[in-house]
Amino acid sequence: MKKKQTLALLLAGAMLVPNAFAASPEDFHDFPTDWSAAGLRSAVQNGLLNGSNGEIDGNGLLTRAQLAAIVNRAFGADKAADLSGFTDVRPDAWYHNDMAVSVAMGAFQGANGKLNPESPITREEAFAVLARAFGLDGDASALSDYTDGGSVSPWAKSAVSALIDSGFVNGANGKLNPRSSITRAEFAKVISGMASTFADNGLSDTVDGNVIVRSSGASLAGKTINGDLILADGAAQADLTNVTVTGRILIRGGADGVTFGNTSAGRGIIVHSDVSIAGAADSITVAGAAAVTVQSGASVGSITVNAENAKITGAGKVGEVRANADNVSVSTSGTRVSASEDVSGVQAGSKTVAAGKTETVSQTSGGSSSGGSSSGGGSSSGGSSNGGSSNGGDSSSNNDQNVNAEIADAKVVTTDAGAYLALSFKDGFKADATTVTVDGADVTAAVSKVTDDGAVSKLPLTANPGSVTLTSGGRTQTISLGTAQANAVYTGEDYLPDYFIKHGPLAMWDYYLTNYDDAGSVRVLPAKTTFGTSAVRSEHPSYSEPLVLDEKGEGSVVIMFNYNTAEEKAWFDSIAAFNEDNTEGAVQLVAYDQEKNTWNRNLQFTKGFDKHNGSTVATLTIPFGQSNFRSNGRYFVRVISANAQGVKSSALASIHVQNHDTPKLRIKEPPTSGKNLHFAVSDLVYGITDPIEKVTLTDPTGKTTTLEKITDYYLLSQDLFVLYNDTNAESGASDHLKYQGEYTLTIQANGFKTFSCTFNVKEGAQPAQLKAVTYDAVSRATGSTSSGSGSSDSSGGYAISTDFLFDSDLVANACVLNKLGRDTADSAAVLEYWHYSASTLDSVFNKGDTMYYDGTDYIDATNKALWVPFSEFVKTAKAGVYPPHATKAVLEDGLLGDIQDSAVSGRLDYIVPTVSGNQQGSDAVLTFENGTDYLGKISALYPNGDWRELDKKYYSIEGNVITLSKDLLHVGENALKIVSNGYKTQTVEFTYGKINETGLELEHSTDEKTGIVAISVKNSEGDFLSRLKSVTLTSNGKDDAVYAKGVESSDAVYYVVAEDNKSLTLHNVKPGAYTVKIAAEYYDDALTAAFTMPGTVEVKAVPEMKVTSSEKDGVFTVSIQGVKDEVNNTTTDKQIGEWKSKVQTISVRGTQYSKIADNDYSTHPSKTSTNYEFKIGSYSDTQLVLGGGAFQTGENIVTISADGYENKEITVTKQAEPEEQPAPVLSATAKSSYGYYNVTLTSTDDLSQWWEKVQTITVDDETARARKGYSTNTVTLSNAVEGNTYTLTISATGYKDATVTFTIKKKAPSSISAAIAEQDDDSYKITLSSSYSGLDANWWKALSKIKVKDGDAASVKKVEDETAFILSSLTPGTQYELTLIADGYNDATVTVKTPNKAGAAPLPTKIETNWTGGIDITFGMGNDAYMNAITGVSVNGTNYPSGNAFDSSAFCVSNATDGMLKLGANLVTSNTNVVVITATKYPDLTITIKDGELVSAVASAE
To answer: Are the C-beta atoms of residues 247 and 210 closer than 8 Å to each other?
Structure first.
């Protein structure tokens, strides 16, 4: 691979700079302060040592696997070797890939088929690994300076000597201890000396010590390095122009190009791996089996080769090569090649160089102008190309004749995507202006561009051409290519299929990654198939740890971005701050699926920064619980910004919100081979979509298998999971439990932590031994033009089986550039996918094919000749491969397009028709221009969203026209889904126009006896009433809707439409004057008519009733109860119910009230409303509840009108309202709670009575909502935003409105910790940090005051450029609680303890006689330093030694933490004992003890 692209999600933070998210020494509670601290600190800060569980374990022994991982990190290496030859590296071991990479580096070699990864590594083994990695060897004489130098193993002598000579290993006490195990701290010291500076941390102009470049893009120009410069394995490209190195330049990377120019290397340039050289270098030494390519235009004075199988190639110039090893080949034109004595296999082009001899590589391009010979055997007067000869006509002043000139280089290249005659045009010539003739035939029309400008172009070949003649602008060039074969250039159609499909694994993250173009549109297919020569990518990689919600379901997502280069800073700084008024914010929530719908277009967020050992990352902190962001699971976050030039781009960051509780699995029956196994699942609560993303099963052999949903497992419910093993079932399940032994089932789920269950199968086959294999399933990722991102959890750590879609011309052009040695970053990225070792060519096809051709058949056929065109292949081949269900296209820059499903992928664009005849009563005609083929391949039509195919009686297809029957269509919007084989599916939408009847009028007649009104529509043929929308009767100013029969009660007015739709009748119409209005769909104007139904309306008396009324909070309740009929021994309740059902209107003082709908349970009459509702009272009485809007003080007449009854008038008295009391003076504080805010009201007044009277609460914000909370004096505020200021207006009955204004303070950073250090002036420096989400820069800026314990808040004295402040007047050895007060934020607290002041001896707190007869002197906790400094104790003038707790004649510090000193029984010689304690750097402490009691304790003067 020419260039390894950035890996996504495989390692935490891998998409950022190598150490952007490295640990820091402060992360480890056991970090030392002795000689080892410096080396360990450097190793940690440079990402070489990671530690585990908060421990760096400096004294722990280093294993061989750990060393491999460290060296891989140091060199940025990722190329893995095949470990099948080693028997002790399990494929599922954490170190498998690290061991494979270290073997590929040559750092580890192993012995006897083993690498011993888990064994502690000895010092000499570690030194040998480092010597190989750093390209060092030495003279064994250096070992003689050490007494154990002779014990160094023979194979390690050179390596150990090299590290001694270089000053990296010194030994101790004259010894090397070569076969002792090396500790992590010892190794850190050595490698930190060898790798003292990493270029990805940024470099000063002058650097002392070795510099390692482990990634491309480091800025080195103009640097001076006093040491070695190591271009490590991970650095594919570097520019060393104007770089001065006093030591060596060691090249282990550089495959994409190393540029030299005015480059100085005091100890030479040493090459250990394949490298491409640009610019000019004086001399190079090749020390590994490397291929050195000298690019066109580059030059190297001399190359010394000291390694076998090295190759020197390229179009550049090399003066001489000295071969000191076997099998060295040199093909650079004109190079003198010398072979040392006793070497063999040295080649100078086609010439063999004998030992001790010198040969010159023949001129193969750019030969002499006098016609010198060339390797192709022809004469050269204009320079030859690639083994042929180039010649043209004589120069002449005649303008009609062509002038010989070198127009282009020509080369026949064969690739796995075709054979081509590649033309590389010289400056001043273009493919567009050149006539190309091959073997006498003009083939200009067959020329296609490889690069955007056509500087490299190609001709497709089916056989070898003899010569090519180029004519451009009156100039000509003929190039001889060899023996001509007939019809070499293919001029027909379909030289290649349109597309190739390759199949292989892809990291899950990459599968769902979406890339965007500069306009913000989703990229799906390549926009072009040619390559630019200077493509620049704009990347905004991101990284986010999974957010694990706390027990309350709260937390914040933190997304990190690089913030090192000017471009990175400009883009991040341009992210617009959150503004609640924006409809489109800079940070948006996006669905984690193929559609990527936007769920929240204006996420609340804060910007900040975090330091990571010299590298700065910028952070976006996004609180969980916002709109549509309240569920655990995966999301994308779209971040929109612009660069310094104002060009907008967006980044798409993946985030993962995980539930607080880890799901659990428990087996429900004994695991048995061949039987399904059920698991009880708990704490896996989800919605509609199954959250399980991946299930793996590790069997007793150690093999881990990824299981398929439905085939291998299924989540039956939230609490039941089944593993299918029943081989007798119809589904044909596999027996996953065939071995006896231990199994582990592991489940990764969207929105949850990974969980697993280990169980044992007691009966089954004996497990076979698992053979070590390597499989590069997920070591490949795309990055992103504008949206690459990562997450530290496993979302990208496993593969999805993927069908990669390749545009054939894109692949061909990338292959041609590769063959010419002119790869670009983009073409190399395309080839990285094309040559991806874990993928296979599944199929080939032309766009629009419904079945594809087998990839193996195609490869076999094309190998029958130089190349077989696809057009010939399909004549005999059979298309038998079904299209894949989804594809990911490889784009022109090596990124991946969005997912295309089978309805789109590889299909031709559909043809959009023109629609005519789409008027009521006519057939609709859909005409498809040039659509004969499209319509001829139609397989089905689906009308108006119906899943059933359209019956052929409703349509016809002729030529390029579809005719749809008028019987199918309806007035309004119609839709026709068209499925045509090989084409994308489309849905044609069109309006079927309505033709309305005209001149319509209503005619009517009434029948008093039956109460029927007959209404006919004059001039209608039935269309109007067939579209009937509504019938309304208006009487006495009131509109009543009329419905069809049976909708309302039997005595209600209803209508019946005649069968011919020309008339309708109204029934149950009572006497009176009416206006009828009839409306129909598609008719703008309703038809109306006035009529009178003769007769007299009989009204009944209102039933007798008992009426009482009451008032509460301005709302009036009228209670209506039936009265007893003494004669019939019944009540009037039934009659009252019938009367109530007929109530039409209710008015108060002439104001008509509106009825609250029966199903409206949220609206009720209020003090100011004019509405009413009926209720059933607690005594089964009917209650009429009336709003107080129309009531006045005194008597009020309530009039109730019921259909068929006399009006009922009720007098309701409203008492005069008491004078309103003043509102309380309020203050408020807000606290977040589950997505809401609880606002607590306080006052110096008693709020209890006022709170009971509170009716409404309003807030001065359109989006926020306030209501009375569940607790006293608490308001619940929703849709509010922290940092904003709100004013509440609170209305309470009998009180004037109260208002209170408050600001919702922002959350202070979580998990703040503090480190305290004493300063020279007796003050203390306190440094703050937050391990949870980083210390918010805005909070730190707002921090203004510190309160110590219960004291007053004082202004904070900050330390510049640090998150630290200074406090004075603190007592040594004392614990303090500090309250941190930041403007606009909630207060935060942190606890610190001041260290004991050096030299101040503590005083004892307790004296007691212990069980041995001795004395225990207790100083208390916090005095560890003093206790550990005690060196002597005397009692009554006699000095005593230090011993143990059971030694009666000695003293003992039995517990330094608790501050306890024990005196043996023999030290207590009298009733009064004078004890003098001596401690280093402390004054002597004299303690007088009498009868076991403390008399005094005095420290001597300092």
So the answer is: yes
| CA atoms of 624 and 1179, how far apart (whole Å) | 50
1462-to-480, 1225, 1412, 1483, 1486 alpha-carbon distances in Å: 101, 64, 10, 20, 15
**Residues sharing a CB contact under 8 Å with residue 589, sequence separation 6 or more, in sequence order:** 598, 599, 600, 603, 626, 628, 629, 635, 636, 637, 638
What pLDDT shows up at residue 373? Answer: 30
Alpha-carbon gap, residue 1217 to 1219, rounded angstroms: 6
Q: What is the DSSP letter of 999?
A: S
Q: Give the integer Cα–Cα distance in Å for 150 and 146.
A: 8
Strand partners, 1499: 1485
Note the pLDDT of residue 1338. 87
> Could you please report the per-residue DSSP string of 559-613?
EEEE--SHHHHHHHHTSPPP-TT-SS-SEEEEESSSS--EEESS---EEEEEEET
Cα gap 1488→1502, rounded to integer Å: 20
Separation CA 180–CA 1133 (nearest Å): 105
Amino acid code (one letter) for 970: H
Cα radius of gyration (the chain): 45
Question: Looking at residue 516, what DSSP letter applies?
Answer: B
- AA identity, residue 1184: L
What is the β-pairing status of strands 269-271 and 249-251?
A: parallel
- Please write the tens of the pLDDT for every residue from 284-330: 999 888 899 999 888 898 899 999 999 999 988 998 999 999 999 99
Query: Which residues, at least 6 apart from 316, have a Cβ–Cβ distance to it below 8 Å?
Result: 277, 294, 295, 296, 297, 298, 299, 300, 332
Confidence of residue 406 (pLDDT cuts 50, 70, 90): confident
Determine the 3-state secondary structure of 1326 from DSSP. Answer: strand
Question: Which residues have CB under 8 Å from 1281's CB, separation 6+?
Answer: 580, 604, 1304
Q: Which two tokens stand for residue 711?
A: 């085939």
CA angle 923, 926, 929 (to 5 degrees): 150
Q: What share of residues in the chain are helix, strand, coil (percent, to 5)? A: 10, 40, 50
The pair of three-digit structure tokens given for residue 489, joined into one six-digit string: 């250039």
**Of 700, 721, 696, 725, which is closest to residue 708 (Cα–Cα)?**
696
Helical residues (DSSP H) of 611-674, grouped into ranges:
none
CA 781 to chain centre: 13
| 894-913 pLDDT per residue, tens | 889 888 888 888 889 999 99
Ramachandran class of 133: left when φ > 0, alpha when ψ lies in -120 to 50, beta otherwise: alpha
Residues 6+ away with beta carbon under 8 Å from 1201: 1143, 1144, 1145, 1146, 1147, 1207
Closest CA relative to residue 561, chosen from 574, 548, 578, 547: 574
Extended strands (E) in 894-1011: 900-901, 914-916, 924-927, 938-943, 955-958, 961-964, 972-980, 986-992, 1001-1007
Q: Closest Cα to residue 677, out of 710, 726, 716, 715? A: 726
Closest among 1244, 1245, 14, 1060 to 509, alpha carbons compared = 14
Question: Order of strands across the sheet with 408-415?
Answer: 408-415, 418-425, 456-461, 448-449
Q: How many CA atoms lie within 13 A of 1086 on its CB side?
A: 13
**pLDDT tens-place string over residues 543-558:** 788 999 998 889 999 9
Q: Which residues of 977-992 are buried (b: 16+ CB within 10 A; e: fewer)?
A: bbbbbbbbebebebeb
User: Letter for the amino acid at 380?
Assistant: S
Q: What is the pTM of this model?
A: 0.41
Compute how many other C-beta atoms are within 10 angstroms of the C-beta atom of residue 717.
8
Take residue 230 and report the two structure tokens written for it. 């190591």
pLDDT band (50, 70, 90) for residue 363: low
Q: In Å, what is the CA distance from 955 to each residue of 94, 262, 936, 962?
A: 64, 78, 14, 7
